Structures are given as C-alpha cells and as structure tokens.
Fold this sequence. Notes:
Layout: H1 16-28, H2 30-33, E1 37-43, E2 62-66, H3 81-85, H4 95-102, E3 106-111, H5 145-152, E4 158-163, H6 169-175, E5 178-181, E6 201-206, H7 209-220, E7 232-236, H8 237-241, H9 251-262, E8 267-270, H10 272-279, E9 290-291, E10 294-295, H11 299-326, H12 332-338, H13 346-367, E11 371-376, H14 393-409, E12 412-421, E13 424-432, H15 437-460, H16 465-486, H17 490-503, H18 508-522
Parallel strand pairs: 2-3, 2-4, 7-8, 7-11
Antiparallel strand pairs: 1-3, 4-6, 5-6, 5-12, 9-10, 11-13, 12-13
Helix pairs in contact: 7-15, 9-15, 11-14, 16-17, 17-18
Keywords: Membrane, Transmembrane, Transmembrane helix
Pfam family, one: Amidase
Transmembrane segments: 6-23
Amino acid sequence: MGSPSNNIWVVLGLGLAGIYLLTRKLKQSIKEDFGAFIQKLQLLPPPPPAPPKAPHPLTSLTFALSDLFDIEGHVSTFGHPEWARTHEPASSTSPAVSTLVQSGATCIGTTVLDNFAYGISGENKHFGTPTNPAVPARVPGGSSSGAAVAVAANFVDFSLGVDTSGGVRVPAGFCGILGFRPSHGAVSHVGIIPVSTSLDTVGWFAKDPDILRRVGHILLQAPFVMQRSPRQIIIADDCFQQLNVPLDRSSHVVIKATEKLFGKQVLKHINLEDYISSKVPSLKACSNQKSNGELKSSSLKLLASIMQFLQRHEFGNKHDEWMSIVKPDLHPAVSAQLHENFEVSEVEIENSKSVRSEMRAAVNLLLKDEGILVIPTVADPPPKLGGKEILSQDYQSRALSLLSIASISGCCQVTIPLGFYDKYPVSVSLIARHGGDRFLLDTLKTMYTILQEQADIAATSKSSKNVVSKEQSAEIAKEKGNQAYKDKQWQKAIGFYTEAIKLCGENATYYSNRAQAYLELCRL
Length: 524
C-alpha cells in the first residue's frame, strides 16, 4: 500500500486555524470536484503479478470513501471538524478499505458526509454540501453524499459509504446512480466509526453494474455459486401507490422488464403493509400506537419509528458523552434528532429487538432463496438545497418508512436508477433475503440493461400516464380483492373488485371475480 502523495490536504493534528484553511480550500475547489472531497490522498495497490498470472480483480479502478473509515495515520472527521480536532490518527486501515486496495483498486480521497453520518440530506455546513450532478439545486442525499457525488460526477469508478438508515440508498436515488446496501454483518464493520451497530452496513456506489458486482464480490468474499434467475419478483403495490411518480415510470418498468426476461408467471403483487402487520406482531406493542390491539399507524411508519429509536439509542451509547463535552454545532436536521429529549426503557429495547428479529424472518419467508421484493427507493424527489422540506415530519416519515424495510430486517437492497421524471432522478430498489447478496448482484446484472430500455421507452411514450396509472390501480385493487377472497372476506373482496371496475370498467375479469364473491356471500 503506497503512502499519500505530496499534494494531499493534510488534516492530521489540525487546530481551528487549520480547519478554517481546509474549509476555505474546499469552497475554492467546489467547481472542480463538486465539493465531494474532504481530503485528496492516494492509497496505491501492490504491483500487478507477472504473467501468466491474472491481474488483480480491481486493477485500474479508482475509489473514494466517506470520511468515517479508518486510514492509518489519518484522522477521520465523521462529518464534523470537532471530531477530527478531538481524536487521534488511526493506527490501522479499515479491512474493507485495505481489501479493495490489495485487490488492485486505488483510493484517491475521503468524502463529505452528514454530521456523524446521521442525516439523509447530505448537507454539511462545515465542509460544504456536495453538488448533486443530476440536479444541482437539490440536495445530493445522505449520509454518504460526497461518495455518491464522486461517482455521479465521474471522479471515481466506485466509492464506499455507510448505510444505517439510508446512507447509501438515498444518495444513490437522488444522484441517479447504483447503490448497494449489503446484508447486515456481510461486510466487516471493523475500522469504521459506528453510528448504530445493529443497523450499520458498509455499502458502495457505482454507475456500472459490472463494477458494482465486482466490488461486491471482493467485499462480501462470498463463495462462488452458479447464477440463478429469480423464481418470484414481488411488487409492493401499496408502496408504489404512495409515490409522486406515475406507475408507468416506476413499478410498470420493472413489470415489463420481468415479463420480457422471465415471463409473467414470475410476477406477484403484494400489499406489504398488510403482510408486515400480520407477520411482525411485536409492532402492536409499540407504545402509544395501539388501540384494542389494532395499529393506529401504518406498519411501515411504525417500522420507521423503531429504526429511528434504535439508531438514536445506539448512537447515544457510543457518542453521547463526547457530544455533551464538546457540544458540536450541528445541521438543523441532525440537531433535531440528537438534541430532542430521549428516554428509553428496557421494555422498548427488548420490543425493538423482537421487531427486528420478526421482520427478518418475515422478509426471508416472503422471498426465500430466489425471490426479489420491488419497492421505491424514496417516496419523493430530492428537496431543495437549504430548504425546510427535508426537516418536515411528513417528508422524513415517507422516506424512512421505505428505508426501514431493509434496515430493520437486515436484508440486502440495491438502488437502480430509471432515468428522470419531471427533471428529477427516478429509482427503484430490489431487496433479497438476508445473505442473498450475491444473488441480488447477479439479478441486477441480468435485469439492468432491460430495465434501462424499458425506462427509456416509458420516458418517450406518448401514452397518457393517467391511463396507465388507472389500469395499474385497477390491477392493484383486483389483487387486494383476490387476497380478501382467499381469506374468505367476501364483503371486503366485493369492495375491492368494485373499485377495480370503477377504475377500468372494460375488464371482464373484475366483473366475474365480483360475481363469484357475491355467490360466496349468499351462501352464508
């Protein structure tokens, strides 16, 4: 591993004057590097082996990493200059980083992140907010904003970040690139500053699906297995119904690609909220969220609350003492979460652990070894830079509800860009069971090109988005009716079939299904 080059911006042992100088340098160079980097450096790979031996698997690739990974002799900022001022240089390099370097990749710098990797906006008032190359007037997404921007702006081939509650998935979605959150525990956490140990994962970004996969094979160190096609691709219809993007530009793209690659028989539709409610009973024990055993809030919103609770509790265990001594100045979004009155009971901790365990079992049961769950990555477009939208409870709830699925279950998730809608990047996410990381990367490789083709067709199609959306909505209502029918809830089934008929009265199946439900009701 090579030593840093002479022209790096040294941050070791910086006092306040040095921090000011570093910040000023960053502001001056923002047009050059989009504000992505905190420190430029070089970690060089070993010399390539002599022929006929194969070259290192990541030879000629460059990467950057969020500034919370240990690099020997370097003080990570953890997204805040006060952290660097009060901590010593690392004595060794994070295994995730050194493994990539030993595999032939060159690390060229560390990148900006939210204060303490705690936000989803990617904004940082101390080091500057990286510019989103896809939509410069909007936030890049966080927490690993600089790492995503470095890839989106073509400064590096791939980059590393940490995904606790969306830290890789959100910026990938906002910047229009690929982002991978592995199964919890699949990549070593050694040598990273912890945010929330039960939720933290080392994730990575790339534009090229082949590079994303190659990096994954190195980091995951998974044994080789024959590539398998998905047996089921399950569309979470209720999640897509909440999107501010028409269905023909999101879930419909995945449906079309699936039909072309694997056939209609592979597709399945699900109401994920209902499934989680039935399979994660500990959600009902959430304080102030139940009434006669029935959930007042949606199961996904409750899941998001559990995720926020765990993150705040575990962050506090590690860092609250330091926070109380140093009293760092924080971005409003981070400050609102870390400075609110936070009390925790043993009952809440145990209940959160139960939810996490049940959620993993529920997703693994749904997907088994060769199933894929399809959800939106985020519910809304990137908010304006410096705006208050991302601070609102509604925005946070809508975003974190989707992000909590993989975070709480510990399952792996990949964010896939699908072009633009209304000038903003659109993405979907595929989720596989815990431990199904290699299968998920293989599925991405198989589907990526067809997904992009279908996204391009949808973007240029002259068909009315409302017509497509109505047809899709009718199908969703029909699927809900079918489920109610299976559960022998005849009146409920009739209601859903009637809703489908109102949306699309030309489909004879809806009338037939409703008539059958009426017959069953009359037999009672």
